[in-house]
Amino acid sequence: MTEPPGRRERKKAATRQKIADTALRLFLERGYDAVGIRDVAAESDVAVTTVFSHFASKEALVFERDQDFEQRLTRAVTDRPPHEPLIPALHREVQALVRHCTAEGSAPVRRMIEGSPALRKYEESMNLRHAQALAAALAADPHLSRSATACRATARFTIDAYALACQADDPGATVDEVFRMIEAAWEATAS
């Protein structure tokens, strides 16, 4: 059983969320390139060092749920019941993540990301990191018995399913279509 976070952890989490919310509001109001870390710190009523203690870069402020995203994907592999097939578990998790990225009010953030070369580059490197973490989780599962190549390809396709769906007219149908291909490829790699 996990212990609830203590007062200090709750304060840190609240400060982090306040900084992220403030940054996103400023980026959307003024434009990503027009807002600096000092602006975010001042508006959040924290020191610049506090911003950097919570976020490694300005780009990370936009993708503040980055670690949660990665953990959710890897947990879809590691925390699923032993009898549950892998691909449906990943499919469900990606559908849930896509619902978040396509929720009401998310379009301005997506446009901001698409309009910024720095944010697109950061998102690309973040997606590669997520794919590596997911591939490692797949390869570590002794019940899956697939090659390292199959694990890496499945992880990349899973991340790509999310990315494609977040930009699609019908996100749910896009995830379903890509996961039909992922499942067929996964089954084809069974030894």
UniProtKB/TrEMBL annotation:
Keyword set includes Transcription: yes
Encoding gene per record: kstR2_1
DNA-binding stretch(es), residue numbering of this chain: 36-55
Gene Ontology molecular function: any one: transcription cis-regulatory region binding
Domain HTH tetR-type: 13-73
Membrane-spanning parts: none
Annotated Pfam families: TetR_N
Domain of life the protein comes from: Bacteria
Name this protein carries in UniProt: HTH-type transcriptional repressor KstR2
Signal peptide range: none
Keywords on record: DNA-binding, Transcription, Transcription regulation
InterPro entries (alphabetical): Homeodomain-like_sf, HTH-type_TetR-like_transc_reg, HTH_TetR
